[in-house]
Amino acid sequence: MRSIRAAAVGAVTMSLALAASACGGGSSTGGGSNDSPKTLTYWASNQGASIEVDKKVLQPELDKFEKQTGIKVKLEVVPWSDLLNRILTATTSGQGPDVLNIGNTWSASLQATGALLPWDAENFGKIGGKDRFVDSALGSTGAQGKDPAAVPLYSMAYALYYNKKMFADAGLSKPPATWDELIADGKKISTGGKWGLGAEGSNLSENIHHAFVFGKQHGADFFTSDGKPDFTSEKAVAAIKQYVDLMATDKIIAPGNAEYAQNQSLSDFAKGKTAMVLWQTASATLKNLGMKDDDWGVAPVPVPSGTPGTGTNVNSMVAGINLAVFKNTRNRDGATKFVKFMTSDDEQKLLNTAYGSIPPVRSAQSDAAFNSPATTVLKDTLAKSAAALPQVADESQFETTVGTAVKELFADAAAGRPVTTASVKAKLEKAQQQMPAK
Amino acid sequence: MTTTATVEARGRTASTRSPGAARGPRRTGRIRRIGLPYLLLLPALLLELLVHLVPMAIGIVMSFKELTQFYIRDWGTAPWSGIDNYRMSVDFNAPVGDALLHSFLVTCGFTLLSVALCWLIGTAAALYMQDTFRGRGLLRALFLVPYALPVYAAVVTWAFMFQHDNGLVNHVLHDQLHLTDEPSFWLIGGNSFVALLTVSVWKGWPFAFLIVMAGLQNIPKDLYEAAALDGAGLWQQIRRITLPSLRPVNQVLVLVLFLWTFNDFNTPYVLFGRAAPQAADLISIHIYQASFVTWNFGTGSAMSVLLLLFLLVVTGAYLALTSRGRRRADA
Fold first, then answer.
1. Shortest distance, CA B86 to any CA of chain A (angstroms)
2. Chain A residues closer than 8 Å to B58 by CB
3. Nearest residue, CB atoms, B95 vs list A14, A91, A430
4. Interchain contact, A20 vs B305, CB within 8 Å
5. Where are the domains of chain A?
6. How many pairs of residues across A and B have Cβ atoms under 8 Å apart?
7. pLDDT for the residue numbered B48
8. H/E/C letters for each residue in A196-224?
9. Prediction ipTM score
């Protein structure tokens, strides 16, 4: 009997302690040093079709860097689903990489933690100056009025990818330019197991990118000018309802897309099940999925009316990846050299070609390699009609709370439950109330 | 008694040889006698302190702080917020508390169902495996497969099977058996509770099976023979002999299953990702979201502490009740 009691007490203590120690933490201080000048650790985000592809692309470049400088770079490619948590853990423990990739929309959130090295004029000077980078990319490097927390590395924008054959089969000669046209075209295509448009309904980041663009088109910003969440305005509600209605009432998105979060909509596109997707830099992945470059076309993301531009005709967020240095790096000079290397003209051309993205470095962007029809659309969008997500400290929470609200609304739409202005508003209210209290 | 006697004897022999013997062998011997078990426990206690109690204490401190991304790099500098985090967590009229209560109730329902099903299936299987028959060993090994598989791999496979368009579950239920008019969603919306429960029971019952099977080995065979002679049928034997004899085993089993299920994080996380559907919003995921998704680490810690208190109370009450019941039965 006694041993059973002891076992029970032991099991209880273990489980309870585990429950309570879910949150742990430490602290870190200092602004970096040069104690360890010969090595660097680099966390790269997963840009290519797989982590293996990324290693193949990056390793030769890192070897080149080692030859030039004698600094060995240890590479780790981190999947997107883990990246933010990994950065957060590294921030808390102080045990992070020296150099890392961050999603550019997180810049202001991560800047607020104080873990990233600020890029003041002096630091920018070491990598050739701020003027080397295009403005739209610099717009997503941190809060306004503060030194950037990161340097742009790859730029991307959303575009409408369409399947040429499916369009021809439906008697359509050109891609839609406005939402009305897209819905009309989508309805023509959505028959017999085929669907007009794809979506990733359970992918929070994807949801928030579209919510933001639809928001811009309705004149909603999601944050007030002093950085407070403003998710429930009439315009924001209308914007998100319009997006979810593509499935709920227009019925041009397959209900099954509500649970997609692993790029399944892109593979549906490649298989000819879905005729259109709104995507950023899909070309490399489409090739991987077995599509020939002639099978698909690229057009700007539709706008309410007219042509894409600023204001309510914004049709993309400024998407991209930034390169940041952890403040407590033990190889500050080496880290800066590495950033200089990765943003040099040659590397920019090479890396952005490999990933199908656009160089945020002006001189590299004008290279002939980035003049294909697909990249021209993306370049134009970035230059004329893309807007940066709100650069506020709570941006990453906005991504998850509103992204979750959209996911739940898609779940409603998929199950045939009505998506109404009231239900959208209720979900957005819940999202706003989850934001950290100020 | 034998172990105590040996320790006592050893303690005495050692004390006569030690320099401290001048102060009287009896006294030192008693100190040794009392001290030795504690000395032996010391490494475990130290580790327990380091691995569990220190983080727990830190968690409790954090729960009184306003810990957001502005302070996580050096959380000691985060401003104190008094009991604000707790007040927010239990204010059921406000959104944070309301969501926590919802998640708590979902978890309670889920845990009760999952533990009950795990226990029922495990016990039934163990009873069935009592008889020797051809292939028993193979079947027994098969039953333990879910318990042996890595959780992540197993749950990911379930997630594939539950997919709306290409999943095996819909293929069987809809395409082959025609039980549903349309393929159902299992990973989003209301059905997600059923999906979660299925995986949880699939994962949990082999443990119940294993423990009950071990417990059954300890029941003397002659009890059954005597009962059979007296004319007791199978059901009566189970009710009057098997279940009462398994009582102490079941006491621990149910408690451990309860704690594991209540705190389960892996299953919902792998199945649904970082934003679980409302119907399957288990408290562990909910606290994770509060902490790591909305970066309200203070509130997340407060919720963890509340969960800890709840589990302590429930467990304490459970242990008190069941052991009192047993004492009465023993008397």
1. 14
2. 21, 23-25
3. A430
4. yes
5. 2-156+319-387, 158-316+393-433
6. 188
7. 87
8. EEECCCCCHHHHHHHHHHHHHHHCCCCEC
9. 0.80
pLDDT digits (tens, 9 = 90+) for A231-288: 999 999 999 999 999 999 999 999 999 999 988 999 999 999 999 999 998 888 898 8
Contacts of B96 in chain A (CB under 8 A): 433-434
What does the pLDDT look like over B282-294, one tens digit per residue? 999 999 988 887 8
Cβ of B293 under 8 Å from any chain A Cβ? yes
Task: For chain B, report the end-to-end CA distance as a whole number of angstroms.
Answer: 22
Label the pairing between strands A195-198 and A39-45: unpaired
Tell me the domains of chain B and their CATH numbers.
Answer: 89-330 (1.10.3720.10)
Residues A44 and A78 sit within 8 Å (Cβ to Cβ): yes
The number of beta carbons lying within 10 Å of the beta carbon of residue B197 is 18
Domain A2-156+319-387 listed as CATH 3.40.190.10? yes
Contact across the interface for A16 and B308, Cβ inside 8 Å: yes
How confident is the model over A352-381, as pLDDT tens digits?
999 889 999 999 998 998 998 888 999 999
pLDDT of the residue at A438 = 54
**CATH T-level topology, domain A158-316+393-433:** D-Maltodextrin-Binding Protein; domain 2 (3.40.190)
A2-156+319-387 and A158-316+393-433 in the same fold: yes
Q: Is B304 in the A-facing interface, judged by CB distances under 8 Å?
A: yes
pLDDT tens readout for residues A105-149: 999 999 999 999 999 999 999 999 999 999 989 999 999 899 999
Tokens of A102: 């961050």
Mutate to test the interface with B, among A194, A259, A265 (most CBs of B within 10 A): A259
In chain B, the residue whose alpha carbon lies closest to the alpha carbon of A110 is B69
Token readout for A64 is 């080149």
**Closest residue to A24, CB basis, from B55, B187, B311:** B55
Inter-chain touch A21–B55, beta carbons under 8 Å: yes
Q: Which residues of B127-148 are buried (b: 16+ CB within 10 A; e: fewer)?
A: bebeeeeeeeeeebeebeebee
DSSP A95-128: ---SEEEEEGGGHHHHHHHT-BPP--HHHHHHTT
> Can you tell me which residue has the tokens 């727990």?
B56
Q: Give the rounded percent of residues in chain B with a pLDDT score beyond 70.
A: 88
What is the residue whose two structure tokens read 């045939």? A416
Partner-chain residue, chosen from A9, A18, A27, that has the shortest CB–CB distance to B76: A27
A364 CA: distance to closest CA in chain B (Å): 35
